[in-house]
Amino acid sequence: MAIRQIRLAGDPVLNKVCKEVKKMTPMLEVLIGDMLDTMYEANGVGLAAPQVGVLKRIAVVDAGEGPVIMINPQILEQDGEQTGDEGCLSLPGKAGQVTRPNHVIIRALNEHMEEYEMEAEELLARAFCHEIEHLDGHMYTEHVTDGLHDVREEEE
């Protein structure tokens, strides 16, 4: 697998709506592996295909309990509320306060094109919402309430 270049805020690809995935291909299998590698290399919690320049409805998330691959994801239910700092690999070094649902249920396809539903709370729910918005051409900055601030990356 390979590390792909992450597109940064201002890149027009980040404002485009992604196309539905109709079948798994060898190229998409490689893309998913590359997206996971790229996300982990950048110490991210999630990554959507447009962030690596591919306009397909694919996102990967790992909020600490292992990778979740979402193909054609949609939010079925959402409730509750959480407000917290949110960042994005396409806007490195910045974060802002964003309010998201505290609980979501999503439906998506896995890498084998098998449908599944998954319930998520807190960070995982936030990550699902964040990445699904990328697939519709939106960024978290549209929801920031008090402006962006600099974040210092922790040394490992």
Summarize the structure.
It contains 2 helices and 8 strands, in the order H-E-E-E-E-E-E-E-H-E. It is α+β, with helices and mostly antiparallel strands and 156 residues long.
Poorly predicted sequence stretches spanning 5 or more consecutive residues: none
For the largest beta sheet, what order do the strands appear in spatially? 1-2-3-6-7
- Give the class from helix and strand content and strand pairing: alpha+beta
What is the end-to-end distance? 23 Å
Overall average pLDDT: 95
For the secondary structure, the number of strands is: 8
Pattern of helices and strands = HEEEEEEEHE
Outline, from the CA principal axes? globular
User: How many alpha or pi helices?
Assistant: 2
Helix proportion range: 10-25%
Strand residue content: 25-35%
Q: Which radius of gyration do the C-alpha atoms yield?
A: 15 Å
Largest sheet, described in full? 5 strands, antiparallel
